[in-house]
Amino acid sequence: MPTTGKIKLRAITKRPDSRRKLLRSSMIWGACPGSIGPRLPNKIEVIADKPIVGAHMPVHDYLISLQPHHTDRILAGEKTVEFRRRSPAIANGSRLWVYSKLPRGRVEAVAEVTGVVRDRPDRLWMYYSEVSGASPSEFQQYFAGAHRGCAIMLANVRRLLPPITLQELRAVRDGFQPPRSVAQLRLNGPELALFRERARC
Questions:
Q1: How far apart are CA 37 and CA 28, in angstroms?
Q2: CA 96/CA 123 separation, integer angstroms
Q3: Fewer beta carbons within 10 Å, N or C terminal of the chain?
């Protein structure tokens, strides 16, 4: 794919051959106390012929920064995949804590990572656009000039009530700054202790 110009985007129009690996991207709520809704069936079947990474790595907790409207779509069940230009090394089963950027400035949700798929941007859009919550223009702008990217698959989303504000985070960690993208949380760090206390897990 060239480094300039628009990415050619297209949707799946027919079922690929049987050699490709079938992945089910689903939002399953109600897995633990405090979940935001009833159990739902799989939203969509998605196909990929690239390996899912993260199956044999240690499970950790991560903090991701999102625009508020993307957080809203995750909580509404409209977004079960998060696109990233750089592929983070996140193990399946890891928890992803969702920080909504300013003007909200707060941690509003936690989700389980069920897979990370690496591929070309046009193929990521082909397979995961319907569960990404992103518009074609948003996708084009974000991946402009990129040759590779990834799709982080999310499940078991829970809303944090009340959300954890930036002021609370800076009270337990002086000078706390949310990550620009994704950051691993320290196992014994005060941020993760606050997250777990608020989520009751």
A1: 9
A2: 24
A3: C
Taking only the tens place, the pLDDT of each residue in 114-151 is 999 999 999 999 999 999 999 999 999 999 999 999 99
Q: Could you list the residue range(s) of the whole structural domain that residue 35 is in? A: 21-199
| CATH number of the domain to which 141 belongs | 2.30.130.30
Q: What does the angle CA 140 – CA 146 – CA 148 come to, to the nearest 5 degrees?
A: 110
Sort strands 95-100 and 44-48 into parallel, antiparallel or unpaired: unpaired
Q: Residue 131 in contact with residue 105, Cβ under 8 Å?
A: no
Category of 141 on φ-ψ map: left (φ > 0), alpha (ψ -120 to 50) or beta: alpha
Ranges of beta strands (E only) in 37-170 are 44-48, 52-53, 61-66, 81-84, 95-100, 106-119, 149-165
Looking at the domain assignment, is residue 133 inside a domain? Answer: yes
CB 117 within 8 A of CB 151: yes
